[in-house]
């Protein structure tokens, strides 16, 4: 079960990142973050009401609040990086986010077996190689690298926090709702201040209604990924769940290849193959 839900997480995150990166090339990143997360809040609120999730309220929700405070900054950094650099190069670098939940798992006393250790090494190596060199040999801007690493650390911290925010499925819905609500409050405040200062310009005509479905997909896929990861982490070793979930850059790279016609170089294909091999080792270890 851990492998299945963690792999579902990688697919959902990969597609959400691809969609968010595309939207950010036409709309300010902060606007994309606030709009997509607002849609997620509405849907999650309805789910919490329908499942009676309010009964799960307790001290653990502070973990969700903390994740909500960090989340907008992490997403903003990552979307800006995707808009500045090629997705096939930027996205794999966020695999470093796996270091946070894996470190937490190790601190909690988890000790993966030898096969799983090999799987972790192979999978992470594959994810990094999947980015490959930029076509033409050009280097990625230092600011883009800094933004990507900032987003990676934020993502890893959020994943570790949200997995501690609940122990039941209904509690998970409530935790995700609280996290996303905090995201919207923090991001919305930052957007309001940025617009007032003139540092962020809203799209012509105000809210980008033409991109509503795309925004909804990005927000809901991101929420679903957090949910499937939490289930994976609660039913198996956090170290295994975190590494399998970190395969999402492979999904982003493949989506960029199919939709944007970004060609995979030899090193990228090799990286994808290694990622899949590492997945098999983790699943069978």
UniProtKB/TrEMBL annotation:
The keyword Calcium does not apply. GO terms for cellular component: membrane. It comes from the Bacteria. Keywords: Membrane, Transmembrane, Transmembrane helix. SUPFAM superfamilies: Multidrug resistance efflux transporter EmrE. InterPro entries: EamA_dom (IPR000620), EmrE-like (IPR037185). The keyword Transmembrane applies. Pfam families: EamA. Residues 3-130, 144-283 form the EamA domain. The chain crosses the membrane at residues 6-23, 30-55, 61-82, 89-108, 114-132, 144-163, 169-195, 207-232, 238-260. Coiled coil: none annotated. Belongs to the EamA transporter family. This is Integral membrane protein. It comes from Streptomyces davaonensis (strain DSM 101723 / JCM 4913 / KCC S-0913 / 768). The lineage of its organism: Bacteria, Bacillati, Actinomycetota, Actinomycetes, Kitasatosporales.
